[in-house]
Each structure stands twice: as C-alpha cells, then as structure tokens.
Amino acid sequence: MNTTLKLAVSPHIHSGRSTAGIMRDVLIALLPATAAGTILFGWRALLVVSLCTACCVGFELLFNLITKQDLTVGDLSAAVTGVLLGLNLPANVPLWQCVVGSLFAIIVVKCLFGGIGCNLVNPAITARVFMLVAFGSMATQAFPTMVDAVSGATPLGGSVTDFSLTDLFLGLRGGAIGETCALALLIGFVYLLVRRVITWHVPVTFVGTVYILSFFFEGMDFDHALAMILSGGLLLGAIFMATDYVTSPSTAAGKIIFGLGAGLITVLIRYFGVYPEGVSFAILLMNILTPYIDAWTKHKVFGVGGKKA
Amino acid sequence: MKNNGNMTTLLKGILVENPVLVLILGTCPTLATTTNVAGAFGMGIAALVVLVCSNILISLLRKIIPDNVRIPCYIVIIAGFVTMVQMIVQAFFPALYEMLGVYLALITVNCIILGRAEMFASKNSVGKSALDGIGMGLGFTLALCAMAVIREVFGNASFAGMPIPFFEPFKIAFLVKAPGGMLVYGLLIALVSAVTRGKAPAKTEFSCEGCPSAGNCHTGLCQAKGEEL
Hints:
A: mainly alpha; 12 helices; globular; B: 229 residues; mainly alpha; 2 domains
C-alpha cells in the first residue's frame, strides 16, 4: 500500500475524460463531413484536408521543440484545427496557401498566445478569415464534380432558389470542402451530442436565430429561410467551431447569448455586408466577446457573500 | 539611465529600447509608411535628422525653456526642423516626397521625437542628447525597414519597387493592407520581446519620469512603482 499523502488542487473527482479523448470524438464526428467532401469534390479535397492536418500538427511540434515546451501535439487539438481548416477551404485552393493558413492558425493564433486553452479566438475560423481576406480564397469556389458548373453562383452569391432544398441538404452546391453536405454535418452533430462532447445550446440558438431572421428577410418564405441555413458555412461553423470549449462561454445562459449574437451578426453580414460569408466573422466576433459573456453569466455561488478576500 | 556610458546611450535605441518595437512610440508612421522599403527608409532617415537636430537644440535650451510651456516650445523647435527637412526632400527627392505625402509633415507630432525631447534631451547634456537622437533614429529606421521588407517582399513580391521574379504567384496582398501591417507589427514586437527578455527596461523606468500626464494619472500603477525606484 502506498501511504504517502498526495496534495493536489481541486477538482479531486475526475470523470476520466481527457482533452485527447474529446478531441478524438470531434475527429470522429468530422469523418462524415470529410468523406462527403471527398465524394463531392474528388480526391483533391482529401489532399487539402490531409495537408492542413499534417501542417498544423507539424507546426505545433516545431513550435514546441523550438521554444522547449512540453509537446502538446498528443492532445490532438492541432489535428482538429487542421481538419477543420481543411474542411473550411475550397477544394481548388492552392496548396501553398494551405501551408500559410495552417502556419497562421497554429503559430500566430494558438501558440503565440500560449497554446491550447489560452487562444483568444478559434484558430481554424481565424485562419479561414485570414485566408479569405489575404487570398480571397473563398471567391473562387470549387463545385462538386457532379454538379453542372454553369449555374455559377453559390447560394449566397446568387439567388437561393437556384438550388433545390434536397441538393442543398446533400451538399450539391459550391463551397468549402466540409460545409456543403448538411447531412454529414448533422450526423457529426448527433454523434457529438450523444457522446456529450458538446451541448445543444450554441448550435441550436445560432442556427435558429439565422432561420428566424432569414424568414423575415426573405419575405416570410419558409423554404427560402431553410435554404439560408443550409447555405454557406453555417452548419459547419455552428456545430464544430462555435462550440469550441476555449473560445465559447461555459455556462448555458452564456452559450445561448453566444448563439443569438452569432446568428444576428451572420444575418446582418449576409444581407448588408461586403463579404459573402458572415458565419466566420460572426464566430470570430463572438469569440472576442466570450470573456465578457462569461463574466455576465457567472453562476452565483451559494453561501458566499460579504467582502471578498 | 543616468550613469550609462555613451556607447549604451547610442546603442540602446537600436534594440533594447527600440522606440517602435519596445517603447511603442510612433506607431502611425510605422504602419502607414512601411508598404514600400524605399518609403520606409526615407521616412526613417527624415525622422532621424529631425530627431538629432531637435534633441541637440532642446538640450541646449533646456535651462532656458520654462517648465510650464515646454511642450509648445518643443513643438515649435521640432516643427521648424520638420519644415526644413520637408523642403529639402521636396527639392531633391520629389519621388520620395510624393510617396510619403502627409506623413512627412506629421513627423512634427511623431511621439518618438516629442517623447525623446521630454524624456531625454530636456534632462541630459548636448552630447548625450545627440547620441540618443542618433540611436533612437537608427532604431526607428531599422524597425521601419524590417517591417517594410517583410510587408513588401511577401505582400507585393517586390523590393523597393523592383519586382522579384518568380515570387509573384505567392504574394499575400493582405500584408500590404492596414490589418496586415498590424499583424507584422505585433509579430515583430513579440520577436523583439523574446530576444531582449530580461534586458529591456521595466516600464516604470521610462514611463513616469517623463510622462506628461503623470500628475493626472489616477491608476497609481506607475506612481506606486515610481516611488520605489
């Protein structure tokens, strides 16, 4: 018997879940979207996702080695960032831009701020915005190989009525690799909910806000509003990136505020903004507000009052 | 800072107390004129000349200028030199004059020059003030050039206006825009901070003693530490 007393800070009861375990679940949940992207856009889509993943993991390893820190690639968070970044890019993106984007996501957004848990904003979404602004990478969108490219306009660029709802649901439209197939994303969402990796609050309020506001903007048309939530990167962003533990509020009330705010900003940018894609900017802005939302929605602790020490 | 050798006075402006990257002064011209290496170099040299001249003159007059009106006096002296530099640049380097535009005139209100007048020249001998001006001016020029090289080479695939062959398809135009400038600026500050870790002066060494608003400062942060020194 080991009789040594061990001192440790709370919490003392551990659920057995680890960062690596959660990240592995997220990776599994992203598999359907990756598979759908590969089927829709061809093998180059898989190449882009793999390259981003390899670069993200590689850059994090390199940064750890150079700064002589503990190796943090084992927690798989860099891999999740890489897969998400890859899924956020169109399949025809030049490969060197993937490398620059990964460098930005991992080194600038994550490692320079102190690594996992310390980043102010989600690395994948920030890199997507960076690449959108820097390269205009979303301007020339790849189309699924089986879709008639004549239609040209993406749902957000043109009229939503160019695409049938079934096409939108299955992902037969232009866009980033992972964002088009709503079916695959919803499978991932259900998996994450069942595994209790995420809660429903952010995705449901986010998508719900966009739906309700789009309903009014589209002239009270249910189908058009539905098309709006199946367009762009909304589902991918709401399910996988707005739910990032580090950059979204931790209380249920906070998550609902986060989702409402992100939905509102998305709709405003979609209808009044210059850039076609509001979701990335909405998540980025709400990421920045997260510490304040957390402060507003802090739980009241029972039995605590009077002066603070 | 009082008993340092002349060499330290000269060299501290280049890295350890670099005006742009450590003292965070003069950020406006830093962001605005670093899209082109030639423009950045011209800006740096122009500011260097004004800084050295104004430091010398302010140091000479430091016992004459009444304390209550020192800032207007400094501004008049600096504006005089800026006007001279501006006329010289306009006469001999018209291309540079076009490129820098309003930022040349804005050297008058550049915080580096006013800051060094307030922090250094008004308290030190003429020789030391001149050395400080040269060091700070060189530090400013180097920081501007470093930023301009990064922004122009990677953002515009050119160097001082000359295109770099084979680099064109890989340029990141974002870096030439204002947000890209902020990004490069932040990264350079981080780099300098990592390199000079432990060597850079504590903030209080240069903030309170020369801070014009020290009297109105209610945060107490500066003063609490300033009293300890």
